[in-house]
Design brief:
It comes from Rhizophagus clarus. By secondary structure, the protein is α/β, with parallel strands linked by helices. It has a domain of 31 residues. It contains 19 helices and 14 strands. Strands 1-2-3-4-5-6-7-8-9-10-11-12-13-14 form a 14-stranded parallel sheet. Helix 14 runs parallel beside helix 15 and helix 15 packs parallel to helix 16.
């Protein structure tokens, strides 16, 4: 019975994985709750938010160091006293499933700074390196199977060679997620390639060069599914080994103002999801991909592409029929009134479920064409930035009148300086129109939150929303803050991941 109750608690506490405050409260209820919740809390207890430093957690981790490590610290003049002199209740380090080298270095430095005084300067480069080394040794020895490793440099400190620990092979052999920077010394990646063969998610920040060790690591993977490349330097060409048939999701983010050939993407013939993001509106050489057939491709996202859409249209002609999602940020079209790309969506992407695109003020017929052609469409996301775009009332009325019954999610973004939102009469007219549809799905609606709007209009709109929520017409209503930036358009989880 106790085991059954513990299993039930574990299932419940899993939903609190990202709520550290609630998990900490669960520790204090009784021993059983403590035993169950502590494993989830310490899975990624420190997280990536380095500003939220939890000194008590690091006190606890330091207290877990074996006597051998404490002797090494003492010999180097690092005398550390922790508030709790008792032996730890649990093997906390062994519960960790996520390690970030950057976070470990940062927290060690912070820990030593907090314990430094005028007479004793514990926080120097040598002490940070020594204590970090003992922390990594503890992790390698105590963690039975690490899941997620994030490797990056911290300041100008040299990397602790934690892979040389004899226990590292067992700790890392089942590693499934790896984030790394390409300019880590080559031997690190080569050593890791001898240990890890089952990484399924690899995220790389490409700097000035790509080491041969990193190539060895990629080649050694047997079941790599997800590859994300952040291009953060002037690297011109990206070379990927030929074991690409297992990769189903590729994200390529070019964060510098330099053209890079996309020809390497043509090797990933089994892609199901492709995301391309560019920092500036420079000329994108999409030509190497325009005639490539990706028979498994279901999700395609592209951001910051110039207004020459011909090559992208060629790509959709070949791959559009298989797409379930197409997300395009063409909000910066330099006033161009060419609607050829949206027309191509209506012509070639007939099986879409989710669509993100913008509609200019002269594209009302194009919007109707898409709504009529894409009969499986469930979600549409668009924006109203200025007078170049269709206004909200026209968008909503057209969607309510011409969309098929499958569509039930509407997401409208706008600029934070937009002058006003819908008038109450316009909003109510839309809901009445929606209420008379044959669809069995209640509406998910995301609209701009215009803070400088007329207060009386805001009050009336709230009442209208409450009314149609009570009638069951609206299932979920959300206001966004109206900051139309590329990351919001595609990657704001609060907006794009609306779920049942």
């Amino acid at each position: 019975m106790t085991k059954l109750f513990a299993d039930c608690l574990k299932e419940i506490f899993e939903y609190l994985e990202n709520d550290k405050v609630s998990l900490y409260s669960c520790l204090l209820v009784n021993r059983l709750w403590c035993e169950v919740s502590v494993r989830i809390l310490w899975r990624d207890v420190f997280g990536e938010n380095i500003q939220k430093y939890n000194s008590s957690c690091y006190d606890t981790l330091i207290s877990c160091l074996p006597n051998e490590s404490k002797e090494i610290l003492s010999k180097n003049g690092i005398i550390i006293s922790t508030p709790n002199t008792k032996l730890p209740m649990f093997n906390y380090a062994g519960f960790c499933k996520v390690i970030s080298t950057f976070v470990v270095y940062y927290r060690v430095e912070k820990f030593l700074k907090n314990r430094s005084s005028k007479d004793l300067n514990l926080c120097n480069k040598n002490n940070v390196h020594i204590l970090t080394q003992e922390i990594f040794k503890l992790y390698m020895k105590q963690i039975p199977s690490l899941e997620d490793l994030r490797v990056s440099r911290y300041r100008n400190l040299s990397m602790v060679p934690f892979l040389s620990c004899s226990e590292a092979k067992d700790c890392l052999k089942n590693l499934s997620i790896l984030y790394c920077v390409s300019n880590i010394y080559s031997g690190f990646f080569y050593h890791l390639s001898q240990i890890c063969h089952n990484i399924h998610s690899l995220i790389m920040d490409f700097d000035s060069y790509m080491t041969s060790g990193l190539m060895d690591l990629i080649s050694a993977q047997k079941n790599l599914k997800y590859l994300k490349i952040n291009h953060i330097s002037v690297l011109k060409d990206i070379i990927i080994p030929n074991n690409n048939n297992t990769i189903t999701k590729l994200e390529y983010y070019n964060l510098v103002n330099v053209d890079t050939s996309l020809s390497f993407i043509s090797k990933f013939t089994n892609l199901e999801e492709l995301s391309l993001k560019f920092k500036y509106m420079f000329t994108l050489d999409f030509r190497p991909l325009q005639y490539i057939n990706f028979p498994q491709l279901r999700i395609f996202k592209i951001q910051n592409i110039n207004s020459n859409y011909e090559v992208l249209i060629n790509f959709l002609e070949i791959n559009g029929n298989n797409l379930k999602e197409f997300h395009l940020n063409n909000s910066d079209s330099n006033g161009d009134n060419d609607d050829s790309l949206n027309l191509a969506i209506a012509k070639y992407c007939l099986n879409l479920r989710n669509l993100t695109t913008g509609f200019k003020s002269n594209e009302l017929k194009t919007l109707k064409f898409i709504l009529n052609s894409c009969q499986y469409l469930e979600s549409i996301k668009t924006w109203c930035i200025d007078d170049r775009n269709l206004v909200e009332k026209v968008l909503l009325y057209t969607i309510a009148k011409f969309s098929h019954e499958n569509l039930y999610k509407i997401i409208i973004l706008t600029h934070k300086f937009s002058p006003k939102s819908l008038l109450p009469s316009q909003l109510e007219s839309f809901f009445k129109k929606w209420k008379n549809r044959t669809s069995q799905n209640s509406l998910y609606l995301v609209m701009p939150n215009i803070k400088n709007d007329n207060r009386e209009n805001i009050r009336k709109n709230k009442k209208i929303i409450e009314k149609y929520t009570n009638l069951g017409v609206i299932k979920k209503f959300k206001l966004n803050e109206g900051n139309i930036i590329p990351d919001v358009i595609f990657y704001d989880r609060d907006i794009s991941d609306l779920s049942d």
